[in-house]
Amino acid sequence: MPDVEQIPTLIGDIYDAALDPSRWTSVLQKTRDVVGGSAAAVFSKDARTKNLNVYYHCGGIDPRYQRLYIEKYEKLDPSTTAHVLGEIEETIATADFMELDDLQDTRFYQEWGRPQGLVDFAAAVLDRTATGAILLGVFRQHQHGLVDDDTRWRMRQIVPHIRRAMLIGKALEFKTAEADAFAETLNGLSAGMFLVDQDGRIIHANASGQVLLGEGTALCKAGDRMRLTDAAAARALKEIVAAASNGDHAAGIKGIAVPLTGRDGEPYAAHVLPLTSGTRRRVQAHYSAVAAVFIRKAEIEAPSPPEVIATHYQLTPTELRVLLAIVEIGGVRETSDALGIGESTVKTHLHRVFSKTGTSRQADLVKLVASFSSPLLG
């Protein structure tokens, strides 16, 4: 397994991919090697439909097994609900949601995981969708072993940066950092964006940034410098921007997210993209800036209906999987086949669900789930 000293270089590559999406495959290859695994992917899963969408991937999942997963086994994968309900940026291993012996007894593992020599899967939520999540996942085979504390530590050093880079890349939505197109693109962003030098002087501000400066709620202009109205956040941002002038090794490890509170009491968030390394140097050379600072009002992430149900009734991940399967598929036998567990196990969990939710019939469960799917929750 590569030495952890490679992590700062990997972080720099991650932020280059924010500006050049063609680099994500290389980033995932390095992520796979640093974490320890045979393949890695960024993908989305939906707990309700069980649909899978792969955005970027690398490594040794045979195309035939990829096709089989989409056509047949994604609906049998017992990890879907656990992944969708996971905490953002926290590593989820198989042992976190079911016993390994139980997994190995499932049809999903017997027919899809075992033939590929897979023994574990390290995943982390990068962002939420209405009923699912976008995740980073690393597949582990026998030679890599089960996910352990070292694996989780390595994931923690990488996942926050992949999440931030993808959010920044989503906001920018362009494939190269050519300077002429850069300013025009940034003016179309809803988030305030400021190119700043190492002393915090504003080199360029997009249209939304000018609006934020005019409002003076989250930030203001002191001379030619940008200053956050939240004193603690201002100090943190100053340190990160100053460090950005020394490249990713200095700025990346310290983190680039700065929460702040505006004068109106509303929460805001600032994200910093260093511009002094890799592909981003083309932007830095044109603007003499060391960092791009994105500022916008923080949005509360609305939990998906399954997450709300699990929290409200204190359901375990397995109980929630059974509940959703009973509602979506229909009966004990069908749920047993879909989840790859015995009918007696399904009945045991179903009785616990009935007890916790105060219901006694499948029809009651359908009504319960429907009540949590109100548009008011979306």
Protein described:
The chain is of the alpha+beta class and 378 residues long. It has 3 domains: 4-172, Beta-Lactamase; 179-297, Beta-Lactamase (2-Layer Sandwich); 305-377, Orthogonal Bundle (Arc Repressor Mutant, subunit A). It has helices spanning 7-19, 24-35, 63-73, 80-84, 100-104, 107-113, 149-172, 179-186, 207-215, 231-244, 248-251, 281-287, 305-313, 317-329, 332-339, 343-357, 362-371; strands at 39-46, 52-59, 91-92, 118-128, 132-141, 192-196, 202-205, 219-222, 225-228, 257-261, 267-274, 291-297. Strands 2-1-5-4-3 form a 5-stranded antiparallel β-sheet. Helix 1 (7-19) packs antiparallel against helix 2 (24-35), helix 1 runs parallel beside helix 7 (149-172) and helix 14 (317-329) crosses helix 15. The longest helix is centred in the middle third of the chain and has 24 residues, at 149-172.
**What is CATH's topology name of the largest domain?**
Beta-Lactamase
CATH-scheme architecture of the largest domain:
2-Layer Sandwich
Report the radius of gyration as a whole number of Å: 23 Å
Uncertain regions spanning at least 5 consecutive residues: 174-181, 374-378
Biggest sheet statistics:
5 strands, antiparallel
Question: What is the count of β-strands?
Answer: 12
Structural class: alpha+beta
Amount of helix: 40-55%
Mean pLDDT: 80
Count helical runs: 17
Class of the largest domain in CATH?
Alpha Beta
User: What is the total number of structural domains?
Assistant: 3
**CATH homologous superfamily of the largest domain - what is it?**
Transcription factor LuxR-like, autoinducer-binding domain
- Spatial order of strands in the largest sheet: 2-1-5-4-3
From the N-terminal CA to the C-terminal CA, the straight-line distance is: 42 Å
* Overall 3D form: globular
Share of residues in strands = 15-25%
Q: Summarize the helix and strand pattern as letters.
A: HHEEHHEHHEEHHEEHEEHHEEHEHHHHH
